[in-house]
Specification:
270 residues; mainly alpha; Nucleotide Exchange Factor Grpe, Chain A, domain 2; three-stranded mixed sheet; 11% strand; mitochondrion; unfolded protein binding
Length: 270
């Protein structure tokens, strides 16, 4: 009698060989990429499904084999695909420069050129602003000097108009004292003498006030004629003096702090 165990094992081997051959013919691309353990598992699953006659289970086991043994590879592929999609979908940074050194050098040269132009423009603006600043300083200094001078002149010559009005009073006092004859000033005419003395004292006091405020008299008798200080009314021949010499003073001249406020009215020799 034949041994049932041997008959069953030989039957199993025949079925395995036939399944392996059919898988090589039909599923060659799949088996080519599988390992020996995967092939063994595949044949075992097909053998079981043929023996049981469940074709739906065979299809599910056949489809599950590549997913089971290639899960790591598919996960890596999915990760690579996701990274590629993210790199494609992510917007490019306009400020980034390529890895090419030539592009980097070109970009740096362009940046240096732009910065150089900005530096030149800023230098020009600085020069212009410095020039304006210096001009404004000079103008402010000139204005300050003019104002200071005007203030000082106002302090000194603020009484010029008032002094001019008093000059007529001084002239009248001078004419009054000069009109009195000196021979009449005796004890026989005490009233005339006292009047003359009063006029002389008033004139002297007025001249003191003038001098205290910077007003000085000019009596250019026997001096050379100066058109800046004197005003000639007439000329007269006089051999005793040099030509252009003042021989007569009609009105005294006055200066206020060395500024002539009234020239002396004189007569000049020929």
């Amino acid at each position: 009698m034949f041994n049932r165990k041997n008959i069953f094992s030989s039957f199993i081997k025949k079925i395995t060989v036939s399944i392996f051959q059919s898988s090589l013919l039909q599923k060659k691309p799949i088996i080519k990429g599988m390992a020996s353990k995967q092939v063994k598992y595949l044949h075992t699953a097909r053998l079981i499904t043929l023996l049981t006659g469940n074709r739906n289970l065979w299809k599910n086991s056949w489809a599950a084999v590549p997913r089971l043994f290639s899960s790591e590879k598919s996960a890596e592929q999915q990760q690579q695909q996701q990274s590629q999609q993210q790199s494609e979908n992510s917007p490019a940074d306009p400020g980034t420069v390529g890895n090419n050194p030539a592009d980097q050098i070109k970009k740096l040269a362009q940046d240096l050129e732009v910065l150089g132009k900005e530096v030149e423009s800023l230098k020009e603006q600085n020069i212009q602003l410095l020039d304006k600043y210096r001009r404004s300083l000079a103008e402010s200094e000139n204005l300050r000097s003019r104002l200071s001078k005007q203030i000082a002149d106002a302090k000194l010559f603020g009484i010029q108009g008032f002094c001019k009005e008093l000059l007529d009073v001084a002239d009248i006092l001078g004419h009054a004292t000069n009109s009195v004859p000196q021979e009449e000033l005796t004890d026989k005419n005490p009233h005339l003498k006292s009047l003359y003395e009063g006029l002389s004292m008033t004139q002297a006091s007025l001249f003191q006030v003038f001098k205290r405020h910077g007003l000085e008299t000019m009596n250019p008798l026997k001096e050379k004629f100066d058109p800046n200080l004197h005003e000639a009314l007439f000329q007269k021949e006089d051999s005793s003096v040099d030509p252009n010499t003042i021989i007569e003073v009609t009105k005294l001249g006055y200066k206020l702090h060395n500024r002539v406020i009234r020239p002396a009215l004189v007569g000049v020799s020929k």
